[in-house]
Design brief:
The structure is a single chain. This protein is of the alpha+beta class. The protein has one domain: Aminopeptidase. 22% of the residues lie in helices and 30% in strands. A hairpin with a 2-residue loop joins β4 and β5. The two termini are 23 Å apart. The N terminus is likely disordered.
Length: 161
C-alpha cells in the first residue's frame, strides 16, 4: 500500500480561499462518482482504483478529482474533473501537476490518457497525441481503454523518465 501523500493547499478564486488536495478515501466514492457524472466522465472502474485518486476538498465538499492507475512502468491519467463553481481558477492544472508528481513518485516511465474533449488542454503538461495502439497491452486492457472510453477518444502520452 502506498503511503498517503501530505496534504497540499491550493488557492482558487471561486468561492473558497483554500482547498486541500490529498488521497481519496472510501467515503469520497459517492461524491466522486457524482462529480464524474456531472462532468460527463465514466466512473467505470473507479471503485477498483480509488487508492490512485487525488481529490481537492473544500471542507467536506469534493471540488475536483484526478486519478493515476498503474500498469507496470506505465500509468493511466484519468478523471480530471472540477466542480463548475471551481473552474477557471487553476484547480484543474494544480490537480494535474499533483498527479504528475504522484506518477513520478510511483516510478512510472510513461503516462497515457484518453480524452474526447481536452486534447487541447493536456499538451501544456507535456502530453502529445499518439496512436492508441502505442499504449502497452496491460493499459489497453484497462476498463478505460477496453470499454469506458470510445474508440474515437484521443490517446495522449507523456514520458516521465
Amino acid at each position: 500500500m502506498a503511503p498517503t501523500p501530505r496534504l497540499h493547499h491550493v488557492g482558487v478564486s471561486a468561492g473558497a480561499a483554500r482547498l486541500s488536495v490529498g488521497r481519496a478515501h472510501p467515503k469520497d466514492l459517492p461524491a466522486l462518482q457524482e462529480l464524474l457524472s456531472l462532468c460527463g466522465l465514466p466512473s467505470d472502474g473507479v471503485t477498483d482504483c480509488l487508492n490512485g485518486f487525488l481529490v481537492a476538498r473544500d471542507g467536506d465538499r469534493l471540488a475536483g478529482s484526478i486519478g493515476v492507475e498503474r500498469y507496470g512502468a506505465c500509468g493511466l491519467l484519468r478523471s480530471l474533473a472540477v466542480q463548475p463553481d471551481y473552474r477557471h481558477g487553476g484547480l484543474g492544472a494544480k490537480l494535474t501537476r499533483h498527479a504528475l508528481r504522484e506518477a513520478r513518485r510511483l516510478g512510472l516511465r510513461r503516462l497515457f490518457l484518453l480524452t474526447e474533449t481536452a486534447s487541447d488542454y493536456f499538451p501544456r503538461f507535456g502530453f502529445r497525441p499518439v496512436p492508441r495502439q502505442q499504449a502497452p497491452p496491460a493499459l489497453r486492457s484497462s476498463v478505460e481503454f477496453a470499454s469506458a472510453c470510445p474508440e474515437a477518444a484521443i490517446c495522449m502520452e507523456r514520458r516521465l523518465a
